[in-house]
Amino acid sequence: MATLKEKRTCAQRCEDFGHFVWNSDNGTLMGRTPIKWVYISLYYVAFYIVMTGLFALSIYVLMYTLDPYEPDYQDRLHSPGVMAWPDTYNDLDLDIFYNMSDQHSWMKMSECLKHFLVRESPLRSVWDAATENCTQGHYFFQKKFEAPGHTKWACPFTQSMLGNCSGLEDPSFGYNGSEPCVIIKMNRIINFLPNNGTGMAPYVNCTVLDGHKNVGEMEYFPKNGTLDLSYFPYYGRKAQPTYINPLVAVKIHLVQEREAKIQCRVVAHNIAYQNFYDPYEGKVIFHIRASS
Ligand SMILES: *[C@@H]1O[C@H](CO)[C@@H](O)[C@H](O)[C@H]1NC(C)=O
Ligand SMILES: *[C@@H]1O[C@H](CO)[C@@H](O)[C@H](O)[C@H]1NC(C)=O
Ligand SMILES: *[C@@H]1O[C@H](CO)[C@@H](O)[C@H](O)[C@H]1NC(C)=O
Ligand SMILES: *[C@@H]1O[C@H](CO)[C@@H](O)[C@H](O)[C@H]1NC(C)=O
Ligand SMILES: *[C@@H]1O[C@H](CO)[C@@H](O)[C@H](O)[C@H]1NC(C)=O
Ligand SMILES: *[C@@H]1O[C@H](CO)[C@@H](O)[C@H](O)[C@H]1NC(C)=O
Ligand SMILES: *[C@@H]1O[C@H](CO)[C@@H](O)[C@H](O)[C@H]1NC(C)=O
């Protein structure tokens, strides 16, 4: 029986391929006449030029409408969130429990505050130039970019402003006794003006929700728990790379059973604090307990 499939030699295959590449009988190159190839090439060249043009145009339009100094979408954040340190968050609740006669236990709290302050700490050289234009009690509006590297100045916030809660005089932050410090931070929002530009500074007000008789006194640092107006508005990470969040520390004098549930709220009429869906909007609630 003859084989159905003819065995072809390698030379024959090469010849076939040669015919495919250039067929002299009907003058085609890879199955098409050269003029057709020219048309096809022109078509693709035009196609890619149009595609590249469209892509470049859309990128250009996007870049043109984007302000590099501000994120485009920040419509969700109208009111700032508030956080507290030492951040011993246990699920969603902030429990500051420590044993003041157990060094290992209270050191955990004071170390946490120490690390927090180091992280928040500043680039001093850049401040020195800015301080002359920082006026306490006044917003620090800056239309131009006058700081080095086309940026804006930021007012200084130093650890020593936290007074007896700065950790400078008492490195235990009060945790070796019953007068612990809690540090409150309000998150920054670009262009946010507390009290809507009326010139009243926001301040932290802590209230005891539970265990009134266990709290003797609450001291605020800086005085009155004020977040000075010169830290506002915040212009964004790129415009104000040296910005430091102002902080407020609260020294809580615990008495009797030394246990309480406390709410600290940043008070300003345009800071909401009753958002059911965001319990950290405008306030922070924590449990504090000093055992011995
Ligand atoms: C606190 O620490 C002391 C000393 O380590 C210990 O005797 C005491 O039982 C601890 N108190 C509590 C409530 O754990
Ligand atoms: C302070 O403000 C004045 C007037 O606006 C300006 O000329 C000066 O450069 C500012 N200084 C700094 C360090 O920003
Ligand atoms: C800081 O603490 C010291 C001693 O504990 C006290 O004498 C002083 O009045 C406190 N300072 C402030 C601003 O409360
Ligand atoms: C806590 O530590 C500070 C600073 O080291 C010290 O002055 C203070 O007496 C200590 N307090 C207690 C209750 O041990
Ligand atoms: C805030 O101030 C601006 C202009 O000063 C005003 O248009 C706006 O209604 C004010 N908003 C609130 C909530 O008071
Ligand atoms: C702090 O809040 C409490 C309870 O809401 C209120 O009674 C008190 O007057 C407030 N203090 C200040 C300084 O606003
Ligand atoms: C703190 O508040 C009191 C009373 O409201 C006020 O007299 C005092 O000037 C305030 N101090 C500061 C530094 O804001």
Describe this structure in words.
The termini are far apart. This protein has four helices and eleven strands; from the N terminus they run H-E-E-H-E-E-E-H-H-E-E-E-E-E-E. 23% of the residues lie in helices and 22% in strands. The strands form three sheets. Strands 4-5-11-10-7 form a five-stranded mixed β-sheet. It has a four-stranded antiparallel β-sheet with strand order 3-6-9-8. Strands 1-2 form a two-stranded antiparallel sheet. The chain is elongated and about 110 Å long. By secondary structure, the protein is α+β, with helices and mostly antiparallel strands. It folds into two domains: 43 residues; 210 residues, Na, k-atpase alpha subunit (Immunoglobulin-like). The site of one 2-acetamido-2-deoxy-beta-D-glucopyranose (NAG) has 3 residues, from loops. One 2-acetamido-2-deoxy-beta-D-glucopyranose (NAG) binds next to loops. It is a single-pass type II membrane protein. One of its GO terms (cellular component) is sodium:potassium-exchanging ATPase complex.
